[in-house]
Design goal:
With 353 residues, the chain is an alpha+beta fold. The protein is built from nine helices and ten strands. The radius of gyration is 40 Å and the shape is elongated.
Amino acid sequence: MADTSHLTFEPESLLRSLMTNVPGAVYRCETDADWTMLGIGDDIERITGYPAADFIASASRSFSSIIHPEDLERVHEECRRAVAADRSFALEYRLARVGGGWRWVLDRGVRTIDRDGHEWLDGIIFDITERRAAEEALRARDAEAARIAELQASRVRILAAADDARRRLARDLHDGAQQRLLSALLRLSLAERRLGPDDAAIGLVREARVELDAGLADLRELARGIHPAVLTDHGLSAAVRALADRCALPVDLHDDLAERLDPAIEAAFYYTVAEALTNVVRYADASSATVVLSRVEGWAVAEIIDDGCGGADQRRGTGLRGLTDRLGALQGRLRLESPPGCGTRLHATVPLT
């Protein structure tokens, strides 16, 4: 390393060299409230649009006059504390631009004392507007991501609460009203057997038993539609098989689920299959349908395929829209393929993680 001990540097010439060669606006100013500039680099004009000469001895304007009013008190207070503690400071604040608008700057400075004992502030100002804009965009993106995540979580909670309520209602119907009606049906059957064939009341009792039996069947179907007990007790595979067995047309079930899924996914897939099979029977003019349950690369998949007339439209009706919302709450997707004359394929997927 070269010996530089014989070299001397004049503070003023060194400051001029820094102002000329260092990126950013190098400055020296008084420690007064206006930050009266003794010298400031030309880069201040690139940042603010005001020429450096405007600020020398506050010729046209004081430096403090272009600091954002909301930042001014903080900047002076933090600078005062740094000077009192004889430490450097690093401040971020806004400076006015010619013609309007503001630029964010980073101001790094320190108190210095010249050979006559006079205090100055020596520092450098960098334009950090783009960095602040990027940080603000990142904060906004993070806030939006947090909002979306909370919205997603709230949708999941709402669905879970609704499914819990459906399960409780179905269980209450099964354990309460259904059992009472079943007991009444048994009593009517017993009364019918005890009455003689010529008894005047036998016809009324028989009619009451038939009506009660039909009402009990309706109640069972209602409870099953609200939330089937088999789904809660035995899982998706058993519940879908029950749907297939009750369907008005042949349904071929391919079940590749080795184990149970999360209850929310099972409920979403159950209602997807139920809605799809209902639509097949009502509108598809199909001779058969196929249901496939599987796991594919971290996704749970349910497919319902029919050989009907096709032409289904996911935008029509509320059933598929409701399923799309339910699956969406689980970050899942619903895709419909239904070309006219070529049958329909409903494809539902939900991530398993």
